[in-house]
Amino acid sequence: MRILITGSSGLLARHLMPRLRAASHEVVRLLRPEGSSVVDFAAIRPDLDSTDPQPDLDGFDAVINLAGSNIGRRWTKNVREEVVRSRVEYTAKLCRALARVAHPPARFLSASGIGYYGYDKTGQILTESSPPGTGFVVDVCRQWEDATRHLPPQTSITIMRIAPVLAVDGPVLGKLTPLFRKGLGGVMSHGRQVMAWIALPDFLRAVEFLVAQPADAVTGPFNVCAPNPITNREFTRALAKSLHRPAFFRVPKLALKLAFGQMATETVLADQRAIPQRLLDSGFTFTVPTVETTLSTLTPTP
Fold first, then answer.
1. Taking Cα atoms as reference points, which of 36, 146, 34 lies closest to residue 84?
2. Which of 35, 65, 143, 287 could lock 110 by a disulfide, CB 3.0 to 4.6 Å apart?
Protein backbone atom coordinates (compact mmCIF):
# COMPACT_ATOMS: atom_id res chain seq x y z
CA MET A 1 0.00 0.00 0.00
CA ARG A 2 0.90 3.66 -0.30
CA ILE A 3 0.44 4.93 3.25
CA LEU A 4 0.41 8.50 4.55
CA ILE A 5 1.32 9.04 8.20
CA THR A 6 0.75 12.11 10.38
CA GLY A 7 2.48 12.77 13.67
CA SER A 8 5.62 11.25 12.18
CA SER A 9 7.96 12.83 14.72
CA GLY A 10 6.14 11.14 17.62
CA LEU A 11 7.10 7.92 19.37
CA LEU A 12 4.50 5.69 17.74
CA ALA A 13 5.05 6.84 14.17
CA ARG A 14 8.85 6.75 14.52
CA HIS A 15 8.64 3.05 15.31
CA LEU A 16 5.80 2.31 12.90
CA MET A 17 7.24 3.82 9.72
CA PRO A 18 10.28 1.53 9.32
CA ARG A 19 8.14 -1.47 10.19
CA LEU A 20 5.64 -0.63 7.45
CA ARG A 21 8.45 -0.06 4.99
CA ALA A 22 9.96 -3.45 5.90
CA ALA A 23 6.58 -4.96 4.96
CA SER A 24 6.98 -3.41 1.47
CA HIS A 25 4.56 -0.51 1.97
CA GLU A 26 5.43 2.92 0.62
CA VAL A 27 5.46 5.31 3.57
CA VAL A 28 5.03 9.08 3.20
CA ARG A 29 5.15 11.57 6.07
CA LEU A 30 2.69 14.47 6.21
CA LEU A 31 4.48 17.55 7.51
CA ARG A 32 3.37 21.07 8.24
CA PRO A 33 4.59 23.57 5.64
CA GLU A 34 7.42 24.61 7.95
CA GLY A 35 8.25 21.02 8.94
CA SER A 36 11.77 19.71 8.43
CA SER A 37 12.47 16.64 6.33
CA VAL A 38 13.79 13.35 7.68
CA VAL A 39 16.31 11.28 5.79
CA ASP A 40 15.02 8.07 4.14
CA PHE A 41 11.31 8.92 4.28
CA ALA A 42 9.44 10.88 1.64
CA ALA A 43 7.39 13.82 2.88
CA ILE A 44 4.64 16.12 1.62
CA ARG A 45 3.64 19.52 2.97
CA PRO A 46 0.07 20.29 1.90
CA ASP A 47 -1.61 23.51 2.97
CA LEU A 48 -4.45 22.15 5.11
CA ASP A 49 -5.74 25.68 5.72
CA SER A 50 -6.48 26.14 2.04
CA THR A 51 -9.84 25.25 0.52
CA ASP A 52 -8.16 24.40 -2.78
CA PRO A 53 -7.55 20.74 -3.63
CA GLN A 54 -4.14 19.51 -2.50
CA PRO A 55 -2.77 17.19 -5.20
CA ASP A 56 -0.08 15.84 -2.84
CA LEU A 57 -2.86 14.16 -0.83
CA ASP A 58 -4.26 12.29 -3.83
CA GLY A 59 -3.83 8.57 -4.41
CA PHE A 60 -3.03 7.12 -0.98
CA ASP A 61 -4.41 3.68 -0.12
CA ALA A 62 -4.42 4.39 3.61
CA VAL A 63 -3.86 7.25 6.04
CA ILE A 64 -2.70 6.64 9.62
CA ASN A 65 -3.40 9.71 11.72
CA LEU A 66 -1.20 9.81 14.84
CA ALA A 67 -0.87 13.58 15.24
CA GLY A 68 -1.35 15.15 18.67
CA SER A 69 0.63 17.11 21.23
CA ASN A 70 1.68 15.71 24.59
CA ILE A 71 -1.18 15.51 27.09
CA GLY A 72 0.93 14.36 30.05
CA ARG A 73 1.51 17.75 31.66
CA ARG A 74 -0.43 20.24 33.74
CA TRP A 75 -3.44 21.43 31.77
CA THR A 76 -3.11 25.18 31.65
CA LYS A 77 -5.44 27.11 29.36
CA ASN A 78 -2.74 27.21 26.68
CA VAL A 79 -2.05 23.47 26.96
CA ARG A 80 -5.75 22.63 26.65
CA GLU A 81 -6.02 24.78 23.54
CA GLU A 82 -2.91 23.18 22.06
CA VAL A 83 -4.23 19.66 22.73
CA VAL A 84 -7.54 20.43 21.01
CA ARG A 85 -5.84 22.21 18.12
CA SER A 86 -3.33 19.43 17.48
CA ARG A 87 -5.92 16.66 17.61
CA VAL A 88 -9.42 17.88 16.79
CA GLU A 89 -8.75 20.83 14.52
CA TYR A 90 -5.85 19.17 12.71
CA THR A 91 -7.84 15.98 12.04
CA ALA A 92 -10.83 17.98 10.77
CA LYS A 93 -8.63 19.97 8.37
CA LEU A 94 -6.94 16.82 7.12
CA CYS A 95 -10.23 15.01 6.54
CA ARG A 96 -11.72 17.97 4.69
CA ALA A 97 -8.64 18.14 2.47
CA LEU A 98 -8.81 14.40 1.74
CA ALA A 99 -12.47 14.76 0.79
CA ARG A 100 -11.51 17.22 -1.95
CA VAL A 101 -9.02 15.02 -3.81
CA ALA A 102 -9.92 12.99 -6.87
CA HIS A 103 -8.91 9.68 -5.30
CA PRO A 104 -9.42 9.73 -1.51
CA PRO A 105 -7.94 6.94 0.61
CA ALA A 106 -9.82 3.67 0.95
CA ARG A 107 -9.12 3.62 4.68
CA PHE A 108 -8.36 6.13 7.41
CA LEU A 109 -6.99 4.94 10.75
CA SER A 110 -7.20 7.67 13.35
CA ALA A 111 -5.82 7.75 16.86
CA SER A 112 -8.03 8.40 19.85
CA GLY A 113 -7.49 7.49 23.48
CA ILE A 114 -8.67 4.90 25.97
CA GLY A 115 -9.57 7.95 28.04
CA TYR A 116 -12.72 8.14 25.89
CA TYR A 117 -14.48 6.07 28.55
CA GLY A 118 -13.77 8.45 31.42
CA TYR A 119 -11.61 8.25 34.52
CA ASP A 120 -14.07 7.10 37.19
CA LYS A 121 -14.99 3.60 35.96
CA THR A 122 -14.18 1.51 39.04
CA GLY A 123 -15.50 -2.04 38.73
CA GLN A 124 -16.54 -1.68 35.10
CA ILE A 125 -15.17 -3.60 32.11
CA LEU A 126 -14.79 -1.21 29.19
CA THR A 127 -15.29 -2.52 25.66
CA GLU A 128 -15.84 -0.64 22.44
CA SER A 129 -19.59 -0.60 23.13
CA SER A 130 -19.18 1.16 26.49
CA PRO A 131 -20.48 4.76 26.60
CA PRO A 132 -18.16 7.75 26.95
CA GLY A 133 -17.52 9.26 30.36
CA THR A 134 -17.03 12.88 31.36
CA GLY A 135 -14.00 15.13 31.64
CA PHE A 136 -11.53 17.02 29.48
CA VAL A 137 -9.95 13.88 27.97
CA VAL A 138 -13.39 12.51 27.11
CA ASP A 139 -14.39 15.76 25.42
CA VAL A 140 -11.18 15.76 23.37
CA CYS A 141 -11.57 12.11 22.34
CA ARG A 142 -15.21 12.55 21.31
CA GLN A 143 -14.42 15.63 19.23
CA TRP A 144 -11.30 13.96 17.81
CA GLU A 145 -13.28 10.94 16.66
CA ASP A 146 -16.12 13.10 15.36
CA ALA A 147 -13.70 15.12 13.23
CA THR A 148 -13.39 12.13 10.87
CA ARG A 149 -16.96 12.73 9.71
CA HIS A 150 -15.56 15.15 7.11
CA LEU A 151 -14.12 12.22 5.13
CA PRO A 152 -15.96 11.09 1.98
CA PRO A 153 -18.36 8.14 2.36
CA GLN A 154 -16.14 5.77 0.37
CA THR A 155 -13.37 5.99 2.99
CA SER A 156 -13.51 3.34 5.72
CA ILE A 157 -12.81 4.85 9.15
CA THR A 158 -11.07 2.95 11.95
CA ILE A 159 -10.82 4.65 15.34
CA MET A 160 -7.91 3.41 17.46
CA ARG A 161 -8.55 4.09 21.17
CA ILE A 162 -4.95 3.71 22.24
CA ALA A 163 -3.88 2.94 25.81
CA PRO A 164 -0.56 4.20 27.21
CA VAL A 165 2.17 2.48 25.22
CA LEU A 166 5.03 0.91 27.16
CA ALA A 167 8.33 1.56 25.40
CA VAL A 168 11.82 2.30 26.64
CA ASP A 169 11.74 5.69 24.93
CA GLY A 170 8.05 6.32 25.63
CA PRO A 171 6.50 8.87 27.99
CA VAL A 172 5.53 6.33 30.68
CA LEU A 173 8.73 4.33 31.07
CA GLY A 174 10.86 7.26 29.96
CA LYS A 175 9.74 9.22 33.03
CA LEU A 176 9.40 6.39 35.55
CA THR A 177 12.44 4.23 34.83
CA PRO A 178 15.07 6.80 35.96
CA LEU A 179 13.21 7.26 39.27
CA PHE A 180 12.87 3.54 39.84
CA ARG A 181 16.54 2.99 39.04
CA LYS A 182 17.37 5.39 41.89
CA GLY A 183 15.05 3.51 44.25
CA LEU A 184 12.54 6.37 44.21
CA GLY A 185 9.68 4.48 42.59
CA GLY A 186 6.36 4.05 44.30
CA VAL A 187 2.63 3.52 44.14
CA MET A 188 0.37 6.35 43.02
CA SER A 189 -2.25 7.05 45.68
CA HIS A 190 -3.74 3.78 47.01
CA GLY A 191 -2.59 1.90 43.90
CA ARG A 192 -5.89 0.09 43.36
CA GLN A 193 -6.80 2.04 40.22
CA VAL A 194 -6.74 -0.16 37.12
CA MET A 195 -4.69 0.97 34.16
CA ALA A 196 -4.99 -0.04 30.54
CA TRP A 197 -1.70 -0.39 28.67
CA ILE A 198 -0.10 -1.96 25.62
CA ALA A 199 3.45 -2.99 24.78
CA LEU A 200 5.01 -1.16 21.84
CA PRO A 201 5.53 -4.35 19.78
CA ASP A 202 1.86 -5.26 20.10
CA PHE A 203 0.77 -1.71 19.26
CA LEU A 204 2.78 -1.87 16.05
CA ARG A 205 1.39 -5.31 15.21
CA ALA A 206 -2.16 -4.13 15.92
CA VAL A 207 -1.84 -1.24 13.47
CA GLU A 208 -0.40 -3.57 10.82
CA PHE A 209 -3.25 -5.99 11.49
CA LEU A 210 -5.93 -3.30 11.11
CA VAL A 211 -4.36 -1.99 7.89
CA ALA A 212 -4.30 -5.49 6.42
CA GLN A 213 -7.94 -6.41 7.13
CA PRO A 214 -10.75 -5.82 4.62
CA ALA A 215 -11.80 -2.21 5.05
CA ASP A 216 -15.42 -3.02 5.89
CA ALA A 217 -14.32 -5.40 8.67
CA VAL A 218 -12.51 -2.76 10.74
CA THR A 219 -14.80 0.24 10.67
CA GLY A 220 -15.57 1.96 13.95
CA PRO A 221 -13.69 1.93 17.25
CA PHE A 222 -11.04 -0.56 18.40
CA ASN A 223 -9.53 -0.57 21.87
CA VAL A 224 -5.79 -0.82 21.23
CA CYS A 225 -4.72 -2.13 24.62
CA ALA A 226 -3.45 -5.34 26.19
CA PRO A 227 -6.05 -7.95 27.21
CA ASN A 228 -4.81 -7.89 30.82
CA PRO A 229 -5.21 -4.51 32.51
CA ILE A 230 -3.49 -4.20 35.90
CA THR A 231 -3.61 -2.07 39.01
CA ASN A 232 -1.09 0.68 39.59
CA ARG A 233 0.27 -1.32 42.53
CA GLU A 234 0.85 -4.36 40.30
CA PHE A 235 2.53 -2.21 37.67
CA THR A 236 4.78 -0.61 40.30
CA ARG A 237 5.88 -3.99 41.63
CA ALA A 238 6.54 -5.34 38.14
CA LEU A 239 8.61 -2.33 37.10
CA ALA A 240 10.64 -2.40 40.32
CA LYS A 241 11.27 -6.13 39.92
CA SER A 242 12.38 -5.76 36.31
CA LEU A 243 14.94 -3.15 37.38
CA HIS A 244 15.97 -5.04 40.54
CA ARG A 245 15.12 -2.03 42.67
CA PRO A 246 12.86 -1.47 45.68
CA ALA A 247 9.70 0.63 45.39
CA PHE A 248 8.68 1.55 48.91
CA PHE A 249 7.28 5.00 48.34
CA ARG A 250 3.65 6.04 47.96
CA VAL A 251 2.72 9.31 46.28
CA PRO A 252 -0.41 10.72 48.00
CA LYS A 253 -3.39 11.64 45.86
CA LEU A 254 -3.31 15.19 47.23
CA ALA A 255 0.31 15.63 46.16
CA LEU A 256 -0.49 14.46 42.65
CA LYS A 257 -3.45 16.83 42.38
CA LEU A 258 -1.42 19.75 43.71
CA ALA A 259 1.36 19.05 41.23
CA PHE A 260 -0.67 18.25 38.12
CA GLY A 261 -4.24 19.34 38.77
CA GLN A 262 -7.00 17.74 36.72
CA MET A 263 -4.42 15.94 34.57
CA ALA A 264 -3.59 13.71 37.54
CA THR A 265 -7.26 12.94 38.18
CA GLU A 266 -8.00 11.95 34.59
CA THR A 267 -4.79 10.04 33.81
CA VAL A 268 -2.54 8.90 36.68
CA LEU A 269 -5.45 8.28 39.05
CA ALA A 270 -7.92 7.07 36.43
CA ASP A 271 -9.55 3.66 36.88
CA GLN A 272 -10.02 2.14 33.41
CA ARG A 273 -10.36 -1.63 33.01
CA ALA A 274 -10.44 -1.60 29.21
CA ILE A 275 -10.09 -4.73 27.10
CA PRO A 276 -9.51 -5.06 23.32
CA GLN A 277 -12.70 -6.96 22.61
CA ARG A 278 -12.91 -6.23 18.88
CA LEU A 279 -9.23 -7.00 18.25
CA LEU A 280 -9.63 -10.35 20.02
CA ASP A 281 -12.86 -11.11 18.16
CA SER A 282 -11.09 -10.30 14.87
CA GLY A 283 -8.41 -12.93 15.54
CA PHE A 284 -5.56 -10.67 16.65
CA THR A 285 -3.12 -12.32 19.05
CA PHE A 286 -0.87 -10.52 21.53
CA THR A 287 2.81 -11.47 21.76
CA VAL A 288 3.40 -9.71 25.11
CA PRO A 289 0.03 -9.80 26.89
CA THR A 290 1.35 -9.49 30.45
CA VAL A 291 3.09 -6.47 31.91
CA GLU A 292 5.79 -8.63 33.52
CA THR A 293 6.84 -10.00 30.13
CA THR A 294 6.67 -6.53 28.62
CA LEU A 295 8.85 -4.90 31.25
CA SER A 296 11.42 -7.69 31.25
CA THR A 297 11.77 -7.15 27.52
CA LEU A 298 11.73 -3.36 27.42
CA THR A 299 13.64 -2.27 30.52
CA PRO A 300 17.22 -3.51 30.38
CA THR A 301 19.20 -3.33 33.58
CA PRO A 302 22.00 -0.70 33.77
1. 146
2. 65
Report pLDDT digits (tens) over 30-47: 997 765 555 578 899 999
Give the predicted TM-score (pTM) of the model.
0.94
Distances (CA, A) of 50 to 46, 55, 148: 9, 12, 18
Picking from 192, 218, 196, 197, the residue whose alpha carbon sits closest to that of residue 207 is 218
List CB contacts of 143: < 8 A, sequence separation 6 or more. Answer: 84, 87, 88
CA distances in angstroms from 60 to 11, 17, 25, listed in the order given: 23, 15, 11
Q: Parse the chain into domains and list their residue ranges.
A: 2-298
Q: What is the pLDDT along the chain (302 residues), one digit of tens a residue?
A: 999 999 998 999 999 999 999 999 999 999 977 655 555 788 999 999 999 999 999 999 999 999 999 998 999 999 999 999 999 999 999 999 999 999 999 999 999 999 999 999 998 999 999 999 999 999 999 999 999 999 999 999 999 999 999 998 888 998 899 999 998 899 999 999 999 999 999 999 999 999 999 999 999 999 999 999 999 999 999 999 999 999 889 999 999 999 999 999 999 999 999 999 999 999 999 998 899 988 887 655 44
Cα 273 from Cα 124, distance rounded (Å): 7
Contact 176, 239 (CB under 8 A): yes
Nearest residue to 259 (alpha-carbon basis) of 71, 75, 70: 75
Residues 6+ apart with CB under 8 A from 137: 71, 113, 115, 116, 119, 266, 267
Q: Long-range contacts made by residues 15-20, C-beta under 8 angstroms, separation at least 24?
A: 15/167, 15/200, 15/204, 16/64, 16/66, 16/204, 16/207, 17/41, 19/204, 19/208, 20/208, 20/211
